[in-house]
From TrEMBL:
Classification via InterPro entries: AA-permease/SLC12A_dom (IPR004841), Amino_acid_permease_CS (IPR004840), APC_YAT (IPR050524)
Source organism phylogeny: Eukaryota, Fungi, Fungi incertae sedis, Zoopagomycota, Entomophthoromycotina
Keyword tags: Amino-acid transport, Membrane, Transmembrane, Transmembrane helix, Transport
Residue ranges of the TM segments: 43-61, 73-98, 110-133, 153-171, 183-205, 225-246, 267-288, 321-343, 363-384, 390-415, 435-454, 466-486
Species per Swiss-Prot/TrEMBL record: Basidiobolus ranarum
Protein name per the record: Amino acid permease/ SLC12A domain-containing protein
Length: 507
């Protein structure tokens, strides 16, 4: 589709390096184009929508139980620093070369085509399976309200999938608006919770003064010492995954040079403040020794418990509704990210050509349909064989977000090195990542530690739990298989700095 935002060949820079390499010229000159209609508020909320979810509303209680209030705050703070560096790295590349499904493209251009291929397919697989996870969670929420006898759970999962696919089949602006409102509900919930929690802690609501005494209960504030912080640290990273969605949506931004830097700044600070403030308030109201923190369900969600302490008796029902919205939002973002990544892979010749087709609204409809099919099949695997296949799929995708982040760090390091090596003017970059090269190096090291540490519990078991270890690193194995297979078949090599492709659209 060619619309008012279409870019003619005369408005494109000439590519540097090997002209046979896939570039934005090849993509943007196609008649199959996405629409550039997303604004800063859409980009920000898409990323926030993919990040603030059950990890905050439910699983944050487990983090406090494992590491204590101090351990949880330190772990989330460290992960926040890593995310800051990653977001600035991504912002520099995405503002200059705004392409949907950008991770694989940057990896291909600035590292190795095989690296980009593996990044793209792993990221797509991760979000496709994540959608299945959200369907399973949504089924559980609905079964709490309506028994299986009245309506089988699979029906609810199918209805949720229809909603998610329907929102993504709208125009991209329609999708952006839907995600904006979904994410806004979650943001308002967190803000209200923090305010109510502070009032409860001070004794203004609920009739009991909590103060900060729960920070000194038992072993608090730091429980299990360094190991407690490490356990939370490994889990905390998953809560922040989705922030990179700003880069995925870059190709559909109305004004990427301005919108992406704004979104990068807004997303990071908002998400970190939401998580840190929420965990601080939860820690004030609920001691880490409370067994409800480890239950991981809506009835014992830290948010539900916190609202109950204020005297709000309907907190469970309200949180049920909010978490259902959270599931729709996370599934919505996941479907979007996966379909755009698959579309970009197809445009670069790394996926079947049919996936680069778009409909009259600029939606990659076949990429969307295939992603929905895989999500559906992944969900159905949870109904058979005692969920063994489903659990292994989840393990395979669990570290993929960190692999994508690691890929961003590596790609940005090479991006800046190649940019300078080719004698380009730094003033031409719409956005400069701070603390280079310190930022991407630190982000890489932290990502590597988190990925390597996934098998910690298996190694710590007596005897060693080899099954848990294999499951923990399955995602890494899949990435390596993608990388090696493409490298052997295509005989690719690391792209020399002087041949890295910076061709872009002149926005």
């Amino acid at each position: 589709m060619v619309n008012d935002e279409s870019i003619s060949m005369e408005n494109l820079e000439k590519p540097h390096g090997d002209p046979s390499k896939a570039s934005i010229i090849q993509v943007e000159s196609q008649t199959e184009q996405l629409n550039r209609t997303l604004k800063t508020r859409h980009l920000s909320m898409i990323a926030i929508g993919g990040t603030i979810g059950t990890g905050l509303f439910i699983a944050s209680g487990q983090s406090i139980a494992n590491g204590g209030p101090g351990g949880a705050l330190v772990a989330y703070g460290l992960i926040g620093v890593m995310v800051f560096f990653l977001m600035t790295s991504l912002g520099e590349m995405a503002a200059y070369i705004p392409i949907s499904g950008s991770f694989n493209t940057y990896g291909s251009r600035f590292v190795d085509p095989a690296f980009g291929f593996a990044l793209g397919w792993n990221y797509w697989l991760s979000w496709a399976i994540t959608v299945a996870t959200e369907l399973s969670a949504g089924e559980g929420i609905m079964q709490m309200r309506i028994s299986t006898e009245k309506c089988p759970g699979i029906v609810w999962a199918f209805i949720l999938l229809l909603f998610i696919v329907g929102f993504n089949a709208l125009s991209v602006k329609g999708y952006g608006e839907a995600e904006f409102w979904f994410a806004l509900i979650k943001v308002i919930t967190v803000i209200i919770f923090v305010i109510v929690g502070i009032l409860v802690s001070a004794g203004v609501l609920g009739g009991k003064v909590y103060g900060v005494k729960n920070f000194t209960v038992g072993e608090a504030p730091f429980v299990n010492g360094f190991i407690g912080v490490l356990n939370v640290f490994l889990a905390a990273g998953f809560s922040f995954q989705g922030t990179e969605m700003v880069g995925v949506a870059a190709g559909e931004s109305a004004n990427p040079e301005k919108d992406i830097p704004k979104a990068v700044k807004q997303v990071f600070w908002r998400i970190v403040l939401f998580y840190i403030c929420a965990i601080f308030v939860i820690s004030m109201l609920i001691p880490y020794t409370d067994p409800d923190l480890t239950q991981n369900d809506v009835a014992t969600s830290p948010f539900t418990l916190g609202f109950e302490r204020s005297g709000f008796t309907q907190s469970k029902n309200v949180m049920n509704a909010i978490i259902l919205v959270t599931i729709l939002s996370a599934g919505n973002s996941g479907m979007y990210g996966a379909s755009r990544t698959l579309w970009m892979l197809a445009n670069e010749g790394k996926a079947p050509k049919i996936f680069k087709k778009v409909n009259s609204g600029g939606i990659p409809i076949y990429s969307l349909a295939f992603t929905a099919l895989i999500a559906c099949l992944s969900f159905l695997s949870s109904l058979f064989g005692n969920k063994v296949v489903y659990i292994w799929l989840l393990n395979a995708s669990s570290v993929t977000g960190f692999i994508a982040w690691l890929g961003i760090a590596v790609s940005h390091y090479r991006f800046r090195k190649a940019y300078i090596a080719q004698g380009r003017d730094m003033n031409d970059l719409p956005y400069h990542a701070k603390w280079f090269p310190f930022g991407p190096i630190v982000a890489f090291v932290i990502c590597f530690i988190v990925i390597a540490g996934q098998g910690y519990t298996g190694f710590a078991s007596d005897p060693i739990d080899w099954s848990a270890i294999c499951a923990a690193y399955l995602g890494v194995v899949i990435f390596i298989i993608f990388f090696v297979s493409y490298k052997v078949v295509k005989k690719t090599k690391m792209v020399p700095l002087l041949e890295c492709d910076f061709s872009r659209v002149n926005i």
